[in-house]
Specification:
There is one protein chain. The chain has eleven helices and six strands. A two-stranded antiparallel ribbon has the order 1-2. Strands 3-4 form a two-stranded antiparallel sheet. It has 446 residues and is mainly alpha-helical. 70% of the residues lie in helices and 4% in strands.
């Protein structure tokens, strides 16, 4: 609906000077065009799908309150339009009587076209009476100029259309999206049930039931109170400026997506559960064998190495074996929702157990490694001594035999043996170290 600016008459200054024939004809043409625009807008509002839905819906809350106000506004709109139509018809009939109207006729036309010649019914006094065409206190009747009446109808029309468009936009957007999400929810529930994710047995099953209840309640609220889910656009004066508030819907959609990923993880467990169980058994078996090797090595170390602190070796982890047996039981009974977290925990702990077993074996066999290193060093120095032609040196032979007896005897005292090897190294180093000439050499100081 086009908005006409108020004339001087609309401001309370009277109809003004008498209009001449041309002014009357131009005013009639303009007001006739405005009449057609108003009529088109009102008919479009009458046929708007959102208005029909509002009339037939069981409304609640904010929408019920605002629609009641809008219905009163629409009633006032039609009353104003009927009065506008009657006044315009009277002016046209008066103008059509004579081709060149006289002064009395022009004065009457001026009053009709510019004066407050249109009287429309008011509304009863009272808080529940709703808005008036002027927006002021309720009155039995109100008088307007034609231009002022169009301006007031435009305001009421814009407010009513804004409500209708907002409700229709919410109804067009949210229920359909909720229905699609509900369909996806049903598919997820069937899939969850197939892998044992059920209410009361798994948290995701309880969450799915909660989303179902929330979506049902959300749809009912959207249908009965769409304006509660409308966010007007800030600074926008156009009817229907804004967007649906989808926060609650989005929250449920995100929750369902998280559950769906969890269900997919359970499905993956079902597909490769046997392979993962085989790998787990292999890792735990290697850990057991490593611990057994560490225990055997500890006995050897205690028998062959003296004065050495050898750490104790723990037994196999019975708790992990029990949990592995429980995992196999879950797989046999298709309890995938319980198997999934148990497998993840077992895989991590089994790798930790294998690492612990290897570290235990390394710690237990460390004295043997030290003895082997000392033996290797002793033999390496003996070969070096031989290359220097000192293999028959009495001191070196004595120190080598002493070190060898200590390293190849049981139990071997590593500290004493290491000292013997160091003495042999020092003697060998002194043997082939270059001598500095001195006075005893008979060569002078030169």
């Amino acid at each position: 609906m086009g908005v006409a600016g108020p004339s001087p008459a609309a401001a309370g200054a009277g109809p003004g000077p008498v209009m001449d024939r041309d002014e009357v004809d131009r005013a009639l043409a303009r007001l006739g065009a405005e009449h057609e625009a108003v009529e088109t807008s009102l008919l479009a509002l009458q046929d708007h799908a959102g208005r029909r839905l509002l009339e037939g819906a069981e409304l609640t809350g904010l929408t019920r309150q605002r629609w009641a106000e809008a219905e009163r506004s629409i009633t006032l709109l039609w009353a104003g339009f009927d009065a506008y139509t009657g006044a315009l018809r009277s002016a046209r009939e008066l103008r059509s009587r004579r081709r060149n109207p006289g002064r009395d006729e022009l004065a009457a036309l001026t009053e009709l076209l510019r004066g407050e010649s249109v009287t429309v019914p008011g509304t009863p006094a009272g808080a529940e009476a709703g808005p008036t065409l002027t927006g002021g206190p309720a009155r039995l009747s109100e008088s307007f100029t034609l231009e002022r009446l169009v301006e007031r109808m435009n305001r009421l029309y814009a407010a009513a259309l804004d409500l209708v468009v907002a409700a229709d936009t919410v109804w067009s957007a949210l229920p359909a999206r909720i229905d699609l999400l509900a369909a996806e929810l049903q598919r997820t529930r069937r899939l969850a049930h197939s892998v044992g994710v059920r209410p009361g047995e798994h948290p995701a099953g309880d969450d799915l039931e909660g989303i179902t209840r929330t979506l049902t309640a959300l749809r009912e609220e959207v249908v009965s109170d769409p304006l509660a889910f409308w966010q007007p656009a800030s600074g926008s004066s156009a009817p229907g400026g804004g967007r649906p508030d989808t926060e609650r819907y989005d929250r449920q959609a995100r929750a369902l997506e998280e559950i769906r990923r969890e269900i997919e993880a359970v499905l993956l467990v079902r597909q490769d559960a046997e392979e993962r169980l085989v790998r787990l058994r292999d890792v735990l078996s290697r850990a057991d064998r490593t611990l057994a090797e560490a225990r055997a090595a500890r006995g050897e170390v205690l028998a062959k190495i003296a004065a050495s602190e050898v750490p104790a070796v723990s037994g196999p982890p019975t708790a992990l074996q029990e949990q592995l047996a429980a995992a196999a039981e879950y797989r046999r009974h298709a309890r995938w929702h319980k198997l999934s977290p148990l497998l993840e925990s077992l895989e991590e702990r089994a790798e930790d157990e294998l690492l612990r077993a290897r570290e235990s074996l390394t710690a237990v066999t460390a004295p043997l490694a030290v003895r082997a290193e000392l033996r290797g060093r002793l033999d390496a120095y003996k070969a070096k001594v031989a290359r220097h032609g000192a293999a028959e040196d009495p001191l070196l032979t004595e120190r080598y035999d002493a070190a060898r007896r200590m390293l190849w005897s049981a139990p071997c005292d590593l500290r004493v043996a290491e000292s013997a090897v160091l003495r042999y190294q020092q003697a060998a180093a002194e043997l082939w170290a270059p001598r500095v000439p001195g006075p005893a050499d008979g060569r002078g100081e030169g």
